[in-house]
Here is the input.
Amino acid sequence: MNYLPNRSASKRRRALLAAALCVAAATAQAQELTPHPENWRPIVYRDLQVPGPQDQIYADLWADVIQSNNRRYLAAGDRRFLLGNAPVREAHALVRGGERVALLSILDTATHCVAVTRDPSSDLSVKMCPMRLAIWNGTSTTLREAKGCYLEPGAGARKSMANSSHAASYTSYDVVTKSIRLGVILGRRVVEKCSQTVPLYPD
Here is the structure.
């Protein structure tokens, strides 16, 4: 993963994200630790087209890309989404430990992702999309970026998404290596391009 450039907009986003991650860390202290973090779990999805209060941390993390996506829709003459964002969805994994909070997030838009594979029988697609890792260490926030897979349902994919053995995005945390692992299953098969290990603290 690459570190994000330190521009003024990036500085503002870091400040907003640091505040949100600090709240997440404080909230985590009142919660029980996740048992067996090394076990695979379904990744968490959020729809950011009309972000609610619980979505703000993800909207702040991706503010620049969301705005870019909106501008591209407008430039193409599509004005359907003036009261919210153009279609945009997010998937994430959150890791908490003491004062440290790590958020790994993947953003799905029509203008920033590329197709990896598709299962016509289930109307599900896998896309390679922007991915960001934000880490709050108690005093400051670091941001890194890369690419990650997003499992995107089509209009007729509800039954397929409900069957996790057919299609799902999974995440786990390796305590020894301090790494977040990602994986995608589509059509009951592992999508090899989507198997990733993201270290929180690379050498």
In short: Residues 4-9, 26-32 have pLDDT under 50 and may be disordered. The radius of gyration is 17 Å. The chain has one domain: 2-199.
